[in-house]
């Protein structure tokens, strides 16, 4: 019957339109019911209207029309309502949601033919969303709204919404709001708290629309759950070595002194380690700490740590999720060899004022979110500050008990939704550290970041993002001599900054291709060091000339879904780096080591003159193949160039490490990485398992000559060696995501080896053979667990085991022209003792009632429960002619702490 009606409509369309254009109407309606308006229009014209009264029940309008056609008047009346209409001779047929199409009868390939399934369309349980438009070519429609308790009208947070048969999920936020993209036509939405489904709803999507769902109180059990919106992405995506940290889930993990730390959580995952407890920076798959690109809202952080690396410089209460790329790196990223840490601050609440406060023995933390324009823009501000120096006094070292340290950081972002196609976000960050390890020196360092991000939807197939950022890192030393006769007081300052512009476009022409391409430019500026005497002391001032470098890149990639099983992601990044003037560059004689004796000339270059250019072609290739629906294998290949390097002859990274640009004498570092792994999820994604192996080659990596002077050295290239390296390993991760007992176990077997061999003895280390790097730790095991006794009480544990890192020991002594000297072994031939540690925490939460003004959370933690005296470093001193070994330890005893958190 329905098909016959549509056929009749098709044959009469041409007659209808001709009649409708013949008459112009003038009318004035003030707070008039739509039903009365339609009756009036019937009287003014020769048309008869057919519709259901329930579609327009008691709705009113206030409109004025002058010489308008009937079609234009009806369009205006129903422009924001899901009502369509059709002219048939002297009749007008109204429909709700859908429109009647002349092509649906004859075009069997019509994508929207599901709209005309009579059983679906007439099903009383189906919720129809949106108003179908003939010219609408969208492949996805957006459904948004709120979830409420049917009895109390309370908004329901933390409810997972999934689409049956599709990999599409979302979650209601703290205000019960949801937003999800659905395919046109028939969909089944599932609403559930893990692990059970509480209800299903049938949805028929005609266009974008809003709908508020209500549930009875007995169908929803509110409890705090951790939801991953893409719970099986680790199996589906082609990217290898990708780790995502859900920041909202780290609050129960045992912490040092009650301070939640994103980077400490990262080091519990495979392939990410630190050189030692208290060392700033971390090592990813055998790479140095300077080979990690750390981004906060697309702006670089050069030193993301506080207090010698014991605490992270990132505030978790203002952070969203963190993506860590340690395998296949997307083409849009470059400039660092080992990894990318992509950290995004969360957008503030646009509906109401919220915030949280955390108080611990060492640090207090706060964050607030304030709507500026409701449902459009908000301001988020967060900060942390220390309020005690007792931690230094607790360290087992008499020389440190009179020391002091302080730090703070503050972050703010403003996010604004201009319209459906444009969003902007402005972020800023500042951190400051000051510490005095001795009574005569004050060290300080700071990070300053600002970024502007504009997301623009060009059309249905193209989305663009413009990022503009500036980052600056500074450190300084203020030294006040205690010698009144020989005063050598001074200040030393160092600074590096970069400014970057990145424009990226995502192009999705169809379901099989997702193309990303763009352009970026970055300007580096380095002040290598200024030494200034204080009070006219006899210190000779030093002012090293500034350095500038320009990095320009073009990139493109395509995620190509070849078939249901095979996904290919390939890309290319072309980077062009130029070292710029003004500068002085030393020219050395060929076939001789770089030294003052082989110096030929010092050549001067003018402002912005191109001194040296390096081009780096970088390839990105990764693939995923489904062995089964929930089992995949992945492989990847990528190579990267790095044009900026840290200079440090310390065993572990420190805040006073300096950065050096590639120039005429120092080449860019390079790496090539191959990865292969298998991934699977089981039991409805409750368990995740991955086993991945990798192999990396390094070229032009940096090391230093014995006794090298790196700070305030104008001829720094004479102290630097560049060689090769290799790293390989196997990483295993088993993770349980839900249930009373959840957590993960990760194990990594890895090696990181370097090789320095040259034509001259001073360029050779360990006879030119491969030797372990400072952070080579073959075995690394982490076990993180959380057990919930109830919805409010839980216990969490961490256990870590690592092979001791390499060290160089003295193996004898010898006499030379009278004095006695110590003879050392080959570099990094020995190892300090293995490291292991157990942490424990108890977590107690207030009740989870949504209508509470304040939610509370208590955490009691014990760091290093076993009191393990883990060595941080081993050093040697000559005492009365005897060389004695000493071991330094950061935390040799259990460290208990209690912290209190509240959220409002």
Describe the protein's topology:
Blueprint: H1 2-20, E1 24-33, H2 34-44, E2 48-50, E3 60-69, H3 70-77, E4 83-88, E5 91-96, H4 118-121, E6 126-129, E7 141-149, E8 160-163, E9 169-171, E10 177-182, E11 185-193, E12 196-205, E13 209-210, E14 213-215, H5 233-236, E15 242-245, H6 262-266, E16 272-273, E17 283-284, E18 292-296, E19 299-300, E20 305-306, E21 311-312, E22 319-325, E23 339-345, E24 354-359, E25 363-373, E26 377-386, H7 390-394, E27 404-419, E28 422-438, E29 441-457, E30 462-479, E31 490-507, E32 513-533, E33 542-543, E34 547-561, E35 566-580, E36 583-588, E37 599-605, E38 610-628, E39 631-642, E40 644-647, E41 658-661, E42 669-682, E43 687-704, E44 720-736, E45 741-755, E46 771-772, E47 779-788, E48 793-802, E49 806-807, E50 810-815, E51 820-824, E52 830-831, E53 835-845, E54 855-863, E55 873-879, E56 882-888, E57 895-903
Parallel strand pairs: 2-5, 6-12, 7-13, 7-14, 18-23
Antiparallel strand pairs: 1-3, 4-5, 7-10, 8-9, 8-11, 11-12, 15-22, 16-17, 18-19, 20-21, 22-23, 24-25, 24-57, 25-26, 26-27, 27-28, 28-29, 29-30, 30-31, 31-32, 32-33, 32-34, 34-35, 35-38, 36-37, 38-39, 39-42, 40-41, 42-43, 43-44, 44-45, 45-46, 45-47, 47-48, 48-53, 49-52, 50-51, 53-54, 54-57, 55-56
């Amino acid at each position: 019957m329905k098909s016959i009606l549509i056929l009749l409509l098709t044959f009469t369309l041409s007659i209808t339109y001709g009649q409708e254009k013949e008459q112009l109407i003038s009318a004035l309606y003030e707070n008039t019911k739509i039903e009365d308006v339609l009756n009036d229009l019937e009287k003014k014209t020769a048309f008869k209207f057919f519709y259901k009264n329930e579609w327009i029940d008691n709705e009113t309008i206030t409109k004025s029309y002058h010489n308008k056609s009937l079609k234009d008047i009806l369009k205006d009346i129903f422009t924001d309502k899901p009502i369509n209409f059709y002219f048939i001779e002297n009749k007008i047929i109204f429909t709700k949601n859908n429109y009647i199409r002349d092509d649906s009868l004859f075009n069997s390939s019509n994508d929207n033919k599901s709209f005309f399934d009579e059983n679906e369309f007439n099903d009383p349980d189906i919720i129809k969303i949106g108003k179908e438009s003939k010219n609408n070519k969208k492949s996805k429609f957006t459904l948004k709204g709120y979830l409420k308790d049917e009895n109390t009208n309370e908004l329901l947070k933390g409810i997972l919404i999934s689409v049956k048969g599709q990999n599409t999920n979302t979650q209601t936020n703290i205000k019960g709001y949801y937003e999800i993209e659905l395919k046109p036509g028939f969909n089944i939405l599932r609403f559930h708290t893990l692990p059970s489904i509480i209800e299903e709803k049938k949805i028929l999507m005609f266009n974008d629309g809003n709908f508020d769902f209500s549930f009875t109180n007995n169908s929803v059990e509110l409890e705090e759950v951790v939801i991953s919106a893409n719970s099986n992405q680790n199996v589906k995506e082609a990217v290898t070595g990708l780790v995502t940290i859900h920041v909202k889930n780290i609050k129960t993990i045992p912490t040092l002194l009650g301070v939640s730390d994103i980077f400490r959580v990262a080091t519990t995952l495979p392939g990410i380690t630190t050189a030692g407890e208290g060392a700033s920076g971390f090592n990813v798959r055998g790479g140095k700490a300077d080979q990690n690109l750390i981004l906060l809202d697309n702006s670089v952080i050069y030193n993301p740590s506080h207090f010698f690396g014991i605490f992270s410089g990132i505030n978790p209460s203002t952070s969203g999720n963190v993506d860590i790329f340690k395998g296949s790196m997307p083409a849009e990223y470059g400039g660092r060899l080992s990894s990318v840490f992509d950290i995004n601050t969360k957008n503030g609440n646009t509906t109401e004022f919220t915030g949280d406060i955390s108080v611990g023995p060492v640090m207090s933390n706060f964050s607030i979110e304030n709507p500026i324009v409701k449902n459009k823009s908000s301001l988020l501000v967060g900060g942390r500050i220390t309020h005690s120096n007792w931690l230094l006094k607790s360290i087992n070292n008499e020389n440190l008990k009179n020391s002091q340290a302080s730090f703070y950081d503050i972050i703010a972002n403003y996010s604004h939704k201009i319209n459906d196609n444009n969003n902007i976000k402005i972020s800023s960050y500042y951190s400051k550290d000051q510490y005095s390890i001795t009574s005569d020196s004050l060290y300080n360092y700071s990070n300053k970041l600002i970024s502007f991000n504009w997301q623009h939807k060009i059309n249905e197939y193209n989305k663009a993002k413009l990022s503009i950022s500036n980052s600056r890192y500074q450190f300084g030393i203020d030294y006040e001599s205690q010698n009144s006769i020989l005063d050598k007081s001074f200040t030393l300052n160092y600074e590096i900054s970069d400014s970057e512009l990145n424009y990226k476009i995502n192009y999705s022409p169809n379901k099989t291709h997702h193309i990303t391409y763009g352009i970026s430019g970055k300007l580096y500026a380095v002040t290598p060091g200024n030494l200034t005497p204080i009070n006219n002391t006899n210190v000779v001032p030093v002012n090293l000339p500034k350095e500038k470098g320009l990095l320009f890149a073009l990139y493109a990639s395509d995620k190509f879904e070849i078939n249901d099983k095979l996904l290919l992601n390939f890309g290319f990044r072309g980077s062009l780096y130029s070292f710029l003037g003004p500068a002085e560059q030393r020219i050395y004689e060929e076939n001789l080591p770089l030294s003052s004796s082989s110096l030929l000339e010092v050549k001067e270059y003018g402002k912005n003159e191109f001194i040296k250019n390096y081009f780096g072609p970088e390839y990105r290739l990764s693939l995923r193949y489904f062995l089964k629906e929930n089992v995949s294998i992945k492989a990847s290949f990528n190579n990267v160039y790095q044009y900026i390097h840290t200079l440090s002859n310390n065993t572990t990274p420190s805040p006073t490490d300096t950065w050096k640009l590639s120039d005429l004498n120092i080449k860019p570092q390079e790496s090539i990485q191959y990865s292969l792994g298998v991934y699977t999820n089981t039991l409805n994604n409750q368990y995740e398992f991955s086993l991945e192996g990798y192999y990396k080659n390094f070229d032009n990596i940096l090391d230093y000559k014995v006794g090298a002077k790196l700070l305030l050295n104008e001829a720094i290239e004479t102290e630097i060696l560049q060689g090769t390296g290799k790293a390989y390993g196997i990483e295993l991760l088993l993770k349980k995501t839900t249930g009373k007992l959840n957590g993960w176990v990760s194990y990594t077997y890895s090696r990181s080896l370097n090789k320095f061999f040259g034509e001259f003895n001073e360029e050779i280390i360990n006879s030119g053979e491969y030797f372990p790097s400072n952070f080579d730790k073959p075995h690394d095991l982490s076990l993180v667990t959380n057990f919930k006794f109830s919805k409010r009480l839980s216990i969490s544990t961490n256990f870590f085991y690592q092979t001791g890192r390499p060290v160089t020991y003295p193996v004898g002594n010898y006499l030379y022209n009278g004095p006695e000297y110590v003879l050392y072994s080959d570099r990094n031939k020995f190892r300090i003792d293995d490291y292991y540690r157990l942490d424990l925490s108890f977590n107690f939460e207030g009740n989870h009632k949504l209508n509470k003004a304040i939610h509370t959370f208590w955490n009691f933690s014990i760091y290093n429960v076993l009191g393990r005296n883990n060595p941080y470093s081993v050093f040697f001193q000559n005492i009365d002619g005897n060389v004695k070994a000493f071991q330094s330890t950061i935390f040799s005893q259990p460290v208990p702490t209690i912290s209190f958190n509240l959220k409002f």
